[in-house]
TrEMBL record:
Family as reported in the entry's similarity comment: Belongs to the thioesterase PaaI family.
SUPFAM superfamilies: Thioesterase/thiol ester dehydrase-isomerase
Keyword Hydrolase: yes
InterPro entries recorded: Acyl-CoA_thioesterase_PaaI, HotDog_dom_sf, PaaD, PAAI_dom, Thioestr_dom
Superkingdom, natural source: Bacteria
Keyword vocabulary terms for this entry: Hydrolase
Stretches assigned to the Thioesterase domain: 52-124
Protein name stated in the entry: Acyl-CoA thioesterase
């Protein structure tokens, strides 16, 4: 099985159980080894008292992309800690895309950066996540015993 196939099968297994991302209205647009792209359209129920996208929803979108990227090796990975910097507001109707990429993966620890942009390419937020691999796999693979 190729690295891309492992990433896709891992993502498919996670997506089947990811009620939070589905509830958000997110789409898993792309996944590959150490990378993922997740998008959503800002709806009225995503807006806050300033009539812009609530930061918690932007964080959730970025966190979902991070999760798919760090879980792309058929190993269960969870977040150790995450930070986000909000650069510009997301407006009602904006299509936000969170693009995650692996910075480092050593032993059980990983580091990932996620850029959240709107449909015009405007930077909305920068997110950094640290992951930790724990026991378990997303799918059984006879070739690797996992």
């Amino acid at each position: 099985m190729t690295e891309e196939e492992i990433a896709r099968r891992s993502a498919d297994a996670m997506w089947a159980r990811d009620d939070a991302s589905k509830w958000l209205g997110a789409n898993l647009d792309f996944v590959g080894p150490g990378t993922a792209s997740v998008s959503m359209t800002v709806e009225k129920h995503h807006t806050n008292g300033h009539d812009i996208c609530h930061g918690g929803f932007i964080f959730t979108l970025a966190d979902s992309a991070f999760a798919f990227a760090c879980n792309s090796y058929n190993q269960i990975a969870v977040a150790q800690h995450n930070t986000i910097s909000f650069i510009a507001p997301g407006a009602l109707g904006d299509r936000l895309t969170a693009d995650a990429r692996e910075i480092s993966r050593t032993g059980r620890s990983g580091l990932y950066d996620v850029r959240v942009t709107n449909q015009d390419g405007r930077l909305i937020a920068e997110f950094r996540g640290a992951s930790r691999v724990i026991k378990g796999v997303h799918f059984e693979d006879a070739a690797t015993g996992g």
